[in-house]
Amino acid sequence: MNPVVKAQLKEFQKNNSDENLSESEFFEVMSIFAVENGILTENIDPFSAHLRGTEFGVDGIALIIQGEICTNTDEVADILAVGKNHSVGFHFFQSKTSESIDYGDMSKFLDGVYDFFNGGKLLESAQVADLIAAKDLVYSAASKENPKLKCFYCTTGANEISAPIAKLIESNHARLEALSLFSSVEIHLLGAKDIQNAYRAATNAITSTIEFPKAVTLPDHPSVEEAFVGFIAADQIIKIATTEIDGQTSINRSVFYDNVRDFNPNSEINKSILKELEDGDFESFVFKNNGVTVVAREINRKSDTFTLDDYQIVNGCQTTNILFLAGANAAEVSVPFRLIGSKDPEFISSIIVGTNKQNEVKDDQFWALMPFMKNLEEYCRAQDGEAQIFIERRENQYRDLPIERTRVFRPADLMKAVAAMYLFQPNRAARDYRGIRKEFAGKIFEANHSVELYHLAALAAYKFDFVIRNGKVDRSRGIYKFYALYSLVRRLWTTPNLLDASKKNQQKLISEIKTILDDGDKFVRHVEDVSVALDKIIASSGASTREQIRDYIRTESVVEQFGKQYISPQN
């Protein structure tokens, strides 16, 4: 194995030491991480995309919708329920620690990809069955554009492509195109240098250098190291907002707090602005546009040259995308620009809220800015060993820290666990958590709530995913996740009011649940007991396929039966 890749792999293994994987399996996950988070600039858990079985020719599948990884129909339906014309991508991975590209392995990989979309007879496992069902749901939803397909074959060699391999890629590209299922098909072969650079990009804070002439210094502020306002050439905006793969430039999603995936090229406003640029009306842009705001943790200035470290575009998603689409037509455009250097997360949060009030920003994003979330983040991060959890209030905020990726929780992930455990909604947590959020908006993430309870919810969700990923519980049990979390609390507490209960009662319950979570064998038995109870309930329903079972356990009647048959006998 290439020595640099081997060193990076060693670091990756150390940062994810709780995962029970062989070296080759770790390389598979590291490859997914490097490609998704480094090259494609997504922000996903690579272990969620990794196939742990012996699937034919494929090591990983990532179904990405609006920047979110989906592993089953619940997660797909949850995202598709919000808005229309979602961006969808299917990403396939095969990784080999060998330094050469084997024709047979490459052929099997592409056969596996083709099979996934054409019957699924070669790829057989519960995990792939969930993904195929999720794929079918994606295609059943109306959309203006077909999904994009990207295939990545990774090795640790020099990435030299022989004539037979090149012909194999060409023929399979044509075969996949002939399915008429994709807006584009890409097949990439990545070697040691590609993996090295991608891994560095995935783990390092983003840095860029721009030219910002005639920058005006803004007034002093106790939370700001330095800040500037003025106008900047459009090509400098494109420079800080894009990335490159195989010579092709694309938008770098990781630099946008205001979620670049919400850009809508079909909106009449965006189309009219783009039309003006295409018609040559460059002078008007600066008068009509609100501009772009960038916040950086550090700014180094030399004359008109500014180097930005760990920056985010917190306002200007639509503007940036329009300029990118305009290409050469934006060459003479000037853009209103604000550059703020600050290390104060609370002040940065206030900037994000202030600059986005005129835009439709996701509730999940504003959740992350609530004072309670800051307290929770600090509490979870300060826990020792197995209890440590990282609440990701800002996308990619932990990308340059050596931490276990599976311990990172977004507010949306936390909400689902809280809905199951404390709101007694295990049937709705997976698919209808947005409905729960609306219904319980004034009852969650309140300033007076216990950070320990929310930490407990995140820890329980992490522990469940861990026993599934590491094969301590069969993957087929994964669909029972929120019932397993729900029953941890429900067997000890009868009503969904624990968040507002006395501290004494909360502490008592937290202590009892932790005795289960801290003992791996006890928690595995708990998950198995819950699964057996649900299996019995499902057996009498006639539901047989995984999708029928998913639909069935989302009903209130199952919650009632589960309470009578599993919870009540224990009380």
Structure description:
There is one protein chain. The chain is an alpha/beta fold and about 575 residues long. It has 3 domains: about 200 residues, no CATH class; about 160 residues, no CATH class; about 210 residues, no CATH class. It is about 45% helix and about 15% strand. Helix 7 links the parallel strand 4 and strand 5.
Q: Percent of residues in helical segments? A: 40-55%
Q: Please report the number of helical segments.
A: 23
Question: How many structurally independent domains?
Answer: 3
Outline, from the CA principal axes?
A: globular
Give the low-pLDDT segments: none
Q: How far is it from the N-terminal to the C-terminal residue, by CA?
A: 56 Å
Total number of beta strands: 15
The largest pleated sheet is described as: 6 strands, mixed
Backbone CA Rg: 25 Å
Order of the strands making up the biggest sheet:
6-12-11-13-8-7
Strand content: 15-25%
- Helical/strand content category: alpha/beta
Give the rounded overall mean pLDDT: 88
